Amino acid sequence: MKGTDRRWVVKIGSALLTDLTSGLDRRMITRLVGEIVELRAKGVDVVLVSSGSIVEGMQRLGWQERPRELYKLQAAAAVGQMGLVETYQRAFSEYGVQAAQVLLTDADLADRGRYLNARSALRTLLQLGTVPVVNENDSVVTHEIRFGDNDTLAALVANLIEAEYLLILTDQEGLYDRDPSSAERAQLIREGVAGDPLLEQYAGPGSKLGRGGMLTKLQAAGKAARSGASTIILSGRHAGRLTEVLDGQVNGTLLKAGSGRLTARKQWLAGRLRASGRLLLDSGAVKVLTQSGRSLLPVGVRAIEGIFDRGELVDCVDETTGAVIARGLVNYSSVEAGQIIGQPSAKIEQILGYVDEPELIHRDNIVIQ
C-alpha cells in the first residue's frame, strides 16, 4: 500500500487517555483508533503521537502522584510503555491495520543525519500502510535533551513528515479567551494565526497528568507552522471530531500557518544551516532542478568539494558558470557521494553495498536559490 500526499499528525494527550486510578482508558483509545482508521480509508496518512506511558506506569507501580525526579519518570515510562503499545496494537489489529512503535528524543531531530533517518523511517512506514505511534523516549532522555511535552514532539514530527495538519486532541473544546471552568462568558477562539504571541495571554496551566497545558499547544502550533502545517486544537471527548475536519468542519480552534506547506518548509531549510560542501552539476542536472523541481540524482553530479556527512547542507553549483543554483540536505556523505556520482541510481547498491535513498538530495530537501 502506497502512502498519500495528505499527511496528518494526531496528538492525543494524557488527560484524554488516562486517569490515576485505572491507567489507560482503553475504550477511548479504541474509539480514537477507529477514527484514525477511517481517515486512512479516506486517503489521509496519519502519524499518531500519544502520551500516556508515564501515567500507565504510575498505575502499574501503584503511584498516586506524578513524581518530580527524572529517574522515577523514566522508570514509570519504561513500565507504562509496554501497556501503551500493547493497547494500540490490539486496537489497530481489530481493523486489520498494523501499528509501529517509534521512540524519539530531541537529539534524534537535532542531529542532521538522524533527522533524515527518522524522516525516511516514518515515510516508509506510511508507504507500507502502517500507523506509526510516536512517543518521546522518556526512559533515556535527560533534562537537557527532553522535548518537555508531547505537544512539542508532535510539532517536530509534523516538520519531519511535512504534514498538512497537526491535530491536538485534548479534554477541552479548544482555546478560550478565559478559563471556561470559572468564567461563564468564556468564548471559544475559533481561528487565529499560529505563532501569534497575543494568543498566549489566554493559555492556562497544564493538568496533573501531563507536562503540557494550552501554552505548550500554542507554542507547538508555532513550531508546526515552520513547515507549513496548520494546527487544530479540539476535544477528543466527542466522537467524529477527526473525520469532521476532513469534511471541512473545525469544531475547535484552528491556528493557520502563515505560509503554504512547501514555501514554509523551504524557508526553514534555507535558513537553518551553513553549507558543508559543494556539488558541481552538469547542465542536465541544473535544468532538472531549476525547471522541473525534481530530485538531484547522482548521475548529474560531476564532482564534489568539501567533507560532509549524511544530512548536512551542501551547495549545488553549476559547473559551467560557478553559480550556486540550489542548496539541500544530502543523503550520502562526501566519501559515499564520491563513489556514486556520475552513476545511475540503480548502481548505488552495487557500488556501496547498500542504498539509503535513490536520490543524492530529495526534492523536498532542496531550496532553489
Describe this protein with a few key phrases.
37% helix; alpha/beta; Carbamate kinase; Archaeosine Trna-guanine Transglycosylase, Chain: A, domain 4; 369 residues; 2 domains
Q: What does it look like?
A:
Helix 7 packs parallel to helix 8. It contains 13 helices and 15 strands. Helix content is 37%, strand content 20%. Residues 206-212 have low confidence and may be disordered. The protein is an alpha/beta fold and 369 residues long. The chain has two domains: 7-266, Carbamate kinase (3-Layer(aba) Sandwich), CATH 3.40.1160.10; 273-368, Archaeosine Trna-guanine Transglycosylase, Chain: A, domain 4, CATH 2.30.130. The strands form three sheets. It has an eight-stranded mixed sheet with strand order 5-6-4-1-7-9-10-8, with helices on both faces. The two termini are 35 Å apart.
- Give the number of DSSP strands: 15
Query: Would you tell me the overall average pLDDT?
Result: 86
Strand order of the largest sheet: 5-6-4-1-7-9-10-8
What is the CATH homology-level superfamily of the largest domain? Acetylglutamate kinase-like
Structural class: alpha/beta
Beta-strand portion reads 15-25%
What's the CATH architecture of the largest domain?
3-Layer(aba) Sandwich
CATH topology of the largest domain: Carbamate kinase
What is the CATH first-level class name of the largest domain? Alpha Beta
Helix content: 25-40%
Taken from the alpha-carbon principal axes, the silhouette is globular
In the residues, how many domains can be counted? 2
End-to-end C-alpha gap: 35 Å
Number of contiguous helices? 13
Order of helices and strands: EHEEHEHHEHHEHEEHEHEHEHEEEHHE
User: Radius of gyration over alpha carbons?
Assistant: 22 Å
Biggest sheet character: 8 strands, mixed
- Ranges where pLDDT stays below 50 over 5 or more residues in a row are 206-212
